[in-house]
Amino acid sequence: MERILRGVMRYRHTTREQMVQEFRKVRDNPQPKAVFFTCMDSRMIPTRFTETHVGDMFVVRNAGNLVPHAEHFQDEYFSCEPAALELGCVVNNIKHIIVCGHSDCKAMNLLYKLKDPEFASLDNRRISPLRAWLCEHANTSLAKFQNLKEIGLDKPLIFSSETPLRKFVAYIDPENNFAIEDKLSQVNTLQQIENVASYGFLKRRLESHDLHIHALWFDIYTGDIYFFSRNSKRFIAIDESSIDRLLDEPSYAKPLLKIALLYGHGIPDMGRTRLVCSWQKVGQRESFGTLGSDRSPPLGSTSRDQNLPTSPASGLDL
Questions:
Q1: So what's the pLDDT on residue 206?
Q2: CB neighbours of 224 closer than 8 A, spacing ≥ 6?
């Protein structure tokens, strides 16, 4: 607490006046640009790595950067995430929703272990709110990742996007640069796009392309920011070699990419100590009651309304 209280004192004598002036501008002319969902990990500082300022974003943080699917929204149960979507996109007419995952995510490390039925048992969930949270709201992410492991990590996954009929293909870490838990983190980040789009109060704007959902992924070890490219069907590091190609994607992505590239030129050393995790073979899925979700098509299936790609890792025509 001493560090926090001393920090408040430094703030009073340095940046307080400037922030108060910014607060006044936002109060008189609020123009938030995005609702930003990310993890509560203390290393994730979204306003720093997006170079945003007071009034630019509504930031929502939780364990695992999860957005519960609308099927979980009931009279007797609710959470802050759909409320944030309504406040941002309905009340304030924000046009961009961003979900940002990251490497070495402690919630994703735990989620990976929850494939073990004993680890995910009801008794263990009763004594661990974190396990209960992940079992309830991240089980679809784990199910998709388990399916990916079964069919081959170089194979594609198919996700629903802004509407059920609009789907996108994703190859997860085709260069095999990341740990197994980090691959799960990327799958989980993309699953939240589908979860966000499940809310009926966003349906009209999503269908009319007035509202857009994006996925970012932050590598804690290098400080690189990855943008999910629907053209390339994978997460692409935003840097000088990729920025022009990424800017050729739909125009709604350009503000995000420019921000991330500017950040990349001035990134501090974030540290590169890698957490070594162990994992086990695939456990029984029966411990997750809704693993057989029908919200996405069978993995490996084709769609007549889109051209499925050739796997960059295996050359497999789908």
A1: 94
A2: 218, 237, 238, 239, 264
